[in-house]
Amino acid sequence: MENILFIINYAFALIFGVTLSFSLAGAAKSRNDRIILWGVCAIIGILEFVVYLLLGQDFLFKAYPFLIHLPLIGFLVIVMKKPPLLSVIAVTTAYLLCTPRKWIGTFLAMPFHHSQEISYMVQIIITIPMAYFICRFFAPHIAALKNESKKIAKLFAIVPLVYYVMEYILTVYSELLYKDTGAVAGFLDSNMAILYFFFSIVYLHEISQRKEAEMDLKINLIKSEQAEKEIDQLKKNHEQAVIYRHDLLHHLNYLSSCLESGNTKEALAYMKEICTDLHNQKVETYCTNNSINLIMSAYIAKAKGSDIGVVVDFEISDDLTIPVTDLCTLLANGMDNAIHACEKIKDIKKRSIHIAARMQKNKLFIKIENPFEGTIEFDGTMPVAKEYGHGTGTRSIALIVKKHNGLFNFEAADNVFTMIVAV
Questions:
Q1: Minimal CA–CA distance to 286: which of 317, 308, 310, 314?
Q2: What is the H or E stretch that residue 298 is in?
Q3: Which residue, among 47, 50, 32, 40, has the nearest Cα to 15 in the 3D structure?
Q4: Spacing of C-alpha 112 from chain mean position
Q5: 145 with 156: CB under 8 angstroms?
Q6: Using 50, 70 and 90 to split pLDDT, how confident is the model at 21?
Q7: pTM for this model (two decimals)
Q8: For residue 292, what are the CA distances in angstroms to 8, 304, 331?
Q9: With contact defined as beta carbons under 8 Å apart, do 364 and 321 qualify?
Q10: Whole-angstrom Cα distance, residue 26 to residue 83?
């Protein structure tokens, strides 16, 4: 009876492990996937039976990683097209989750004098409920790791992989776990503590970076909204300027009547008001895109207000693959950074900004150069802001470029800072 229960339990354990491996890898969703799953179970079952008959149980257990687990990982990667790291996580986690099933059987068999038959029966009975619970509530979260960064996925691979290796070292390839030695117990405790702290530190660091990226994205959205508002306001000002030019004849008639009646003060005041409005609403033409002309006019006026010379070299058509709001945000952030750096230069003659933009093969290339004083530190490819409240401009630029699968480069050499983006 015990041998029959052993064989049945072994078959259930095989189905349990393969089902969990497929489910944790996200490879058991369709009817076709489930047919493949049962086919894999049958092939593995036959292979195990043949090895058991020819080479014995001990060889089967020791060769299991090479006969079953590694081929199963390869099958998930090659046939089911699952990421290699996720496949490793799925198989090793499935192996880890087989342990509670065995432990419950052993625990419930204790009142019955540790009856092996009772243990096997319990394991068989709980197999389907456990598999359903894990596949229904736990597996989707593991399968979703394919959408996470490799750093997060590696973290989730550590615990089941370490458990897998230690289990085979301590129980299959040796009997160290069952020997009365405090060294093994101490090693296991220390190992779990180290894994916990390592996991916690790296995971918290990843969460911190993600929160920072989310904050940058929020800042970028705010700047995009602000850019839209500025463009709308500039458009209104430009329209008002057009109206003023259109109504020039009426203004001249009014001034003429004021002068004829001797109201020179009123005429001068009216002329001053018109000149001020027209000056504020002046929009230069840098390219055929009116929105870009508006935003550049505003920032060049700001630069000139700080005694900064600006050279503009634009060849931009209206056939843009990037939304105008994103482009204006790129230009606004780039100009803001350049103006801020130039304002720190004491020698006014050295204050200058050169901005160029070109269209090549449906790609837009933007280059902004400006001098700077002092030093600029970099964290990888990103410049590090030393002042509080600064540094979001370059991060916003990087986010927009990544959003459109483009390229960016920031460089500081010979006291000239260069920003190049391709979107």
A1: 314
A2: helix 290-305
A3: 40
A4: 54
A5: yes
A6: very high
A7: 0.51
A8: 74, 18, 9
A9: yes
A10: 10
Which amino acid is located at 371 in the chain? P
Using the predicted structure, report yes or no on whether residue 228 has a pLDDT greater than 70.
no
Which has the closest alpha carbon to 67: 89, 87, 40, 48? 48
Task: Please tell me whether residue 419 adopts helix, strand or coil conformation.
Answer: strand
Looking at residue 247, what DSSP letter applies? T
3-state helix, strand, coil in the chain (%, to 5): 70, 10, 20
- Determine the angle formed by the axes of helices 290-305 and 324-343, rounding to 10 degrees: 10
Residues 117-129 have a mean pLDDT of: 92
- For the chain, the residue count is 423
Residue 368 pLDDT exceeds 70: yes
- Say whether 30 sits in a helix, a strand or coil: coil
pLDDT higher for 166 or 241? 166
307 by DSSP, 3-state: which?
A: coil
Q: What is the DSSP letter of 134?
A: I
User: 131-156 burial by CB neighbour count: b if 16+ within 10 A, else e?
Assistant: beebbeeebeebbebeeeeeebbbbb
Kindly give the pairing relationship between strand 407-413 and strand 416-422: antiparallel
Is-contact 309 355, C-beta < 8 A?
Answer: no
User: 400 and 329 in contact (C-beta within 8 Å)?
Assistant: yes
- CA atoms lying within 13 Å on the CB side of residue 246: 6
Digit-coded pLDDT (tens) for 135-175? 988 888 888 888 777 777 887 888 888 888 888 887 778 77
Nearest-angstrom CA–CA distance, 80 and 83: 9
Which amino acid, one-letter code, is at 8?
I
Measured from the Cβ of residue 23, the count of other Cβ atoms closer than 10 Å reads 24
Q: How many angstroms separate the Cα of 310 from the Cα of each of 18, 197, 285, 316, 354? A: 66, 53, 14, 18, 6
Type of residue numbered 40: V
Are the beta carbons of 61 and 172 closer than 8 angstroms? yes
- Measured CA to CA, the distance from residue 194 to residue 189 in angstroms comes to 9
